[in-house]
Amino acid sequence: MNPHNKSTEELKQIASQVRRDIVRMVHAVNSGHPGGSLGCTDYLVSLYFKVMNYSTDFKMDGQGEDLFFLSNGHISPVFYSTLARAGFFEVSELATFRKLNSRLQGHPATEEGLPGIRVASGSLGQGLSVAIGAALAKKLNNDPSLVYVLMGDGELDEGQVWEAIMYAPHNKVDNIIATVDLNGQQIDGSTEEVLSHGDLRKKFEAFGWHVLEADGNNFETLLPALDEAKAATGKGKPVLMLMNTEMGFGVDFMMGSHKWHGVAPNDEQLQVALQQLAVEAASDY
Amino acid sequence: MKEYSYSEKKDTRSGFGAGLLELGRTNPNVVALCADLVGSLKMGDFIKENPERFFQIGIAEANMMGIAAGLTIGGKIPFTGTFANFSTGRVYDQIRQSIAYSGKNVKICASHAGLTLGEDGATHQILEDIGMMKMLPHMTVINPCDYNQTKAATIAIADYEGPVYLRFGRPVIPVFTPADQKFEIGKAVMLNEGTDVSIFATGHLVWKAILAGHILAEKGINAEIINIHTIKPLDEAAVLASVAKTKCVVSAEEHNRLGGLGDSIAQLLVRNTPLPMEYVATDDTFGESGTPDQLMEKYGLTENDIVAAAERVIARKNQ
């Protein structure tokens, strides 16, 4: 059971609040990664406020719960805000992001014991393997719940990802839903320019995955896609969602450019962003 | 010099295989992973009895480390198996982030460490693994000395919560530790009490240290010989107590002088009681093809090298 089970209208409000958190967090420390965070906000909000079955009383083993792993750890702002808003820790703690002695490290970590985080990520390409391991443990434990993992598209440059992509179908790890955030951008330019991926649907299908596509910035289609993904589990194949998003979604001057991958807004830009991210009853930390 | 006898020679990797088999029978949370080296790691018996608890990963060590980290989240105790080179250098970042920094209860079990891998040559003879692993926060580093101790160590690390690097090897060597000797992580084992020089040895060099002790005894030198099977955490009390008597030190290991057991001991001495010390180790070099014995001789890792080092360090002490 999802502890929130929000309506689509409520999800939109929560997503705007999370986006406000993201731009305020990176602005406050003049560092961090707003672009990918804003693009993946609707996905994370969907998982934590509608789709996943879990408890906010965090236990590392997550027995009987759906688990989420963030492989592209640099989009930690969206992860932290979503976890806080979902009830894993106080929203006020978001003010400590990237500061000394904080549990909210630049990239997600377990070292400081932040509830909701099960593995460190940041060095790219490792999350899918970890998620597969967690999914295999669930099978051994006869635990029917699911494992979700999010990767960036630039992250697919990493060789380890392809080791994992080959492993999961061969071993029928069919209790995992992996999502690739297709925003088409990475630090040095577009994914097409830096290292083109070709036809990812065909590639994943050739490896033996069940592939579906989704618009990651539209709840009306994203939620049904997540339902479809869930329905595709348990049938002998791992499930992959190719999720199209717009980097910087929700803030017009950040959208569609790799330039906002790892740059914080200045004071003026923050105000413009917050105006665009209006929430009926904003509750900024 | 205390006498140590043995009735057979065995490889330490077989001690790992035997320990894993026993764990399969006694600990339902133990699972094993291998990167296409089941026979070399002696994992076959465990797999035969526990096929559902074994994961063949293929030649994909990075993925293996990540999957192992994930398995711990569901309460499993994964033992990964491949050669020491592919267990460490190849996957350093995966171990660093997904296992050590994440505090995951993974047991990284590494065979064919060091020169004694032999004819395959330097690509496979890692001599830097202890250094890499001991530098990682949270990581425990163990290098047992014979079949019995490797079996006991394998069993012991399952009961310890946290990442462990367990290093063992390929050659058959004397089995001289008692089969029923309890393995205590971080607790050095006194092999011979002496007064003239402290010899701290690990892994395959422990038996050679015993041989060296006999040669030294014939020369009238009374060597204290201690088996440091756990390089991290180092049994600092045992080392300091020994050097308080002997006032000079020899370290012996099948590893690069840079970053190995010797460096850990030297650091301890510098911080407490600086004393003359000599290293028996490889000297910032790669290995090469050859038989294990030829390689140990060429690279200075025999009992005679330990004897020479002991004589040098005693002379320095007496200057």
From TrEMBL, chain A:
Record domain Transketolase N-terminal: where: 12-280
One Pfam family, short name: Transketolase_N
Top-level taxon in the UniProt lineage: Bacteria
InterPro entries assigned to the protein according to its UniProt record, in alphabetical order: THDP-binding, Transketolase_N
Gene3D superfamilies assigned: 3.40.50.970
Keywords on record: Thiamine pyrophosphate
Record PANTHER family: TRANSKETOLASE N-TERMINAL SECTION-RELATED (PTHR47514)
Family statement: Belongs to the transketolase family.
Protein name in the entry: Transketolase
Native organism taxonomy: Bacteria, Pseudomonadati, Bacteroidota, Cytophagia, Cytophagales
Automatic annotation (TrEMBL), chain B:
Requisite cofactors: thiamine diphosphate
Taxonomic source organism: Pontibacter qinzhouensis
Family according to the record: Belongs to the transketolase family.
Span of domain Transketolase-like pyrimidine-binding: 10-175
Pfam families found in the cross-reference section: Transket_pyr, Transketolase_C
UniProt cross-references to InterPro entries, sorted A to Z: PDH/Transketolase, THDP-binding, Transketo_C/PFOR_II, Transketolase-like_Pyr-bd, Transketolase_C
Entry keyword set: Thiamine pyrophosphate
Listed name of the protein: Transketolase family protein
